[in-house]
Amino acid sequence: MSTQVIQWYPGHIAKAEKQLAKTLKKIDLVIEVRDARIPLATSHPCLQQWIGNKKHMLVINRRDMISADAQDAWRKYFKNIKQKTFWCNANDGSGTKLIKEAAIKLGKELNDRRISRGMCIRAVRALTLGFPNVGKSALINRLVNRKVAQSSRKAGVTRSLKWIRVDQELDLLDAPGVLPPQLEDQEAAVKLALCDDIGEAAYDIEFVAIKFLSLLNEVNKKTLSGIQPNILKDRYGIDLDGHQLDPYIWLNNAAKNHTSGDSNRMAHRILDDFRKSLLGQISLELP
Predict the structure, then answer these.
(1) What does each C-alpha distance from 159 to 17, 116, 178 come to in angstroms?
(2) Can you tell me the mean pLDDT for 221-230?
(3) Which of 137, 152, 226, 245 qualifies as a cystine partner to 67, CB 3.0-4.6 A?
(4) Per-residue confidence band for 223, with pLDDT thresholds at 50, 70 and 90
(5) CA 32 to chain centre
(6) What's the CA gap between 143 and 89, in Å, rounded?
């Protein structure tokens, strides 16, 4: 199958980034959210430029989707580069209490500085920022403890900026997912597609499914990947090893067995199974 270029930069993201440029002046704290399966691919190259001297919290969401060993490896990696991380699962709320407490603590530090300058105290203004579909809105709902932001498994649901009052100490700005106008790193772009962090209009589903099968072979050699032995054979009855490691042949044979020969439907099925963790806790990136 020929190489394809993955690009996705819908109009609402371009519009939101222009609004963000104006709003950032009012922000005290940036809560950056990344996907635990791909914490490097979901790092925006312009983030540091946007943050400037503002306070920054790095939240790694979907910790339930990777193994404990992979989490430990990533924690050590970020500690070594002196980046504090907060790990959570926004779907069930685990880890979100610590995030709220840390944001409020930073707000108190900012207000102490205001008091020392003779200024009035106010709630800390925090912006949740990250790629589409990494769980920003789900995190906000957990921090507020009610559904105030629209949340979905699909990318591009949040389309405009919205201020949300958490309590008297914290205000959150829910923003649409942001992407670079050009996805220069196509390996990272494939991982974004695999994790449903960009819209399906940006890629061919069979191409990405075949890339996923190839990536499974690659990360399976790493002990922390979380891939269970024979996972493809156990779930679909066909082992990739029996196809001379050719994912294209595997996809077509699996389609004959499961989707009446429809390889597109089979591609959707395997990607959906991965995205729902039905293939196990799989890390697509490891430090």
Answers:
(1) 11, 39, 10
(2) 66
(3) 226
(4) low
(5) 10
(6) 12
> For position 236, what pLDDT does the model report?
93
- Supply the pTM of this predicted model: 0.87
- The full length of the chain comes to 287
Q: Which helix (H) or strand (E) holds 164?
A: strand 162-167
Are residues 231 and 116 part of one domain? no
| Backbone phi, psi, residue 251, to 5° | -60, -45
Q: What is the residue whose two structure tokens read 């498994």?
A: 153
Q: Would the pLDDT of 128 be above 60?
A: yes
Residue 286 included in any domain: no
CATH number of the domain that 146 lies in?
3.40.50.300
Residues 6+ apart with CB under 8 A from 179: 8, 9, 13, 44, 131, 132, 198
Output the six-digit token pair for 255.
């389609």
Is the pLDDT at 229 greater than 80? The verdict is no
**Structural domain span for residue 246:** 204-275
Checking if the pLDDT of 1 tops 80, the result is no
Same-domain pairing of 128 and 220: no
What single-letter amino acid sits at 96?
Answer: T
Instruction: For 239, list phi and psi in degrees, rounded to 5.
Output: -95, 135
37: left (phi > 0), else alpha (psi -120 to 50), else beta?
alpha
